[in-house]
């Protein structure tokens, strides 16, 4: 199995950004402690501070499922953060090698 990257785009409701970032800080600490977590990066749009993008890497699908079922994901994301969002999009992706398509 190959590593999987999660790209999550969160549009935070007006007035909820400070709370979401505080919760996200706690979530990031716990997520980075997961054995199969490869990286956990939080980005904020320059044009719209209420737009947050998460880049997360996991060793494989099993690791991602474990993360999503974790107590901290359920508490912080499902129970606390999602109700404070206008919209949430998640893309699951795998790295590809372009050399396979454009050989030298």
From TrEMBL:
Q: Does the keyword Oxidoreductase apply?
A: yes
**Top-level taxon in the UniProt lineage:** Bacteria
What GO terms are given for molecular function? monooxygenase activity
User: Which SUPFAM superfamilies does this UniProt record tie to the protein?
Assistant: Dimeric alpha+beta barrel (SSF54909)
Source organism (scientific name): Dyadobacter soli
Q: Which UniProt keywords apply?
A: Monooxygenase, Oxidoreductase
Q: Does the keyword Acetylation apply?
A: no
Residue intervals of the ABM domain? 4-96
Name the InterPro entries on file: ABM_dom, AI-2_Isomerase_LsrG, Dimeric_a/b-barrel
Task: List the GO cellular component terms.
Answer: cytosol
Question: What is this protein's record name?
Answer: Quinol monooxygenase YgiN
Gene3D superfamilies xref list? 3.30.70.100
The family database entries (Pfam families) matched by this protein are listed as: ABM
